[in-house]
Design brief:
Layout: H1 2-13, H2 18-40, H3 45-52, H4 56-66, H5 71-89, H6 95-105
Helix pairs in contact: 1-6, 2-4, 2-5, 5-6
Amino acid sequence: KDEALLLLHNLLASGESVYKLLALICSHYELVLMVKEMREEGFSPGEIKAATGAHEYRIKVAGALSRLYSVEQLRLILCRCFDVEKNIKTGLLDERLAMEMLIANL
């Protein structure tokens, strides 16, 4: 988590958009969830690739990460991501603070 927070700070300091970073995180965890659910349903790697349209390397990485989480945990992470976006857009939380809290809770 310390390394992830340091990377976040470096990216934000270099001018990366909070929304772009949040979209990347959301997209990644959405793919992890899809891969996990498809694997549990017996889909082959080729079928997963065809269904998601993702590159096979991304599917491989998502598959490895999916073993660390339950489906419910992945859904909760995605809900947190969507809440962070809502909280930033409504002004409830500062962008940087919201992203730090999200990374700390992943």
